[in-house]
Specification:
Structural class: alpha+beta
Number of strands: 4
Strand content: 35-45%
Order of helices and strands: EHEEHEH
Distance between the termini: 11 Å
Helix content: 25-40%
Radius of gyration: 14 Å
Largest sheet: 4 strands, antiparallel
Length: 104
């Protein structure tokens, strides 16, 4: 059993919620935790920019990670969205089972 977290940043809460619902319905993610507004400072096209964005964390299985990242990118409004994954080292067994069942 291998549960993975996928972190992504969105233009606004509506986009995060819309994409979260799609990937949950398609069984690519067991859930999406939409964290709320964040302030991002980043370099884009040669200039330093600042924007209010919304972050989310998706839980999925390692087997579904690539498909989840690809789907989020396809639905995303940004040309180059921030989508990154990391493995979970320790997790409550019953929660891991639920994630696996939800995306399996």
């Amino acid at each position: 059993m291998s549960v993975v977290s996928v972190y992504a940043v969105f233009a606004n809460a509506d986009e995060a919620q819309r994409i979260g619902r799609v990937v949950a319905q398609e069984r690519l993610a067991a859930c999406a935790n939409i964290l709320g507004a964040i302030q991002s400072i980043y370099r884009w096209q040669g200039a330093v920019e600042s924007a209010e964005e919304v972050a989310a964390i998706f839980k999925t299985s390692s087997a579904r990670t690539d498909a989840l990242i690809t789907r989020i990118a396809a639905l995303h409004s940004y040309d180059v969205p921030c989508i990154a994954s990391w493995p979970i080292d320790k997790i409550l067994g019953t929660y891991a089972d639920w994630v696996e069942d939800s995306v399996g």
